[in-house]
Amino acid sequence: xxxxxxxLSPTENNKVQTGYGSYELRYADTSSQVFTRSIYNHAGSPGxxxxxxxxxxxxxxxxxxxxxxxxxxxxxxxxxxxxxxGRASFMVYADDVLLTRSEEITVDSPLTALEIYIPAGxxxxxxxxxxxxxxxxxxxxxxxxxxxxxxxxxxxxASAALSAEKTELEV
Length: 171
Hints:
171 residues; mainly beta; 1 helix; 8% helix
């Protein structure tokens, strides 16, 4: 089962300038790709709080889930593709615990995918960006972010535990 974050209402958004929908992600200088279920916002200013958006995922991540997304920058308006200033690190938090932080991404970075396990019982998933020393052109894009949930996961874990209990090892 896949649950796209754009189908959920944010529980917190510390940046007013946020968009949801179909947007173009720029990478490898002038290449781009459209993602139809994207989230973008401005990374913020150096020294300020990281830009972030949070979601209640308690019922989704009850048994654990895998978060997947492409990361990069919102493609600029036509004629502005020579801009090389944008840079940011992308972070994923589960209940305010940092799970992963990307290397610094720039417009010259290749198309980058994030995939991270979200622990069972997670209540809040937060996506954040750190602008580093950049102050402009850092409109960060999460391309089609979603949680993949395996509804049969708990049954397989229970079966594996039962099998392990029945196995005897020679000493």
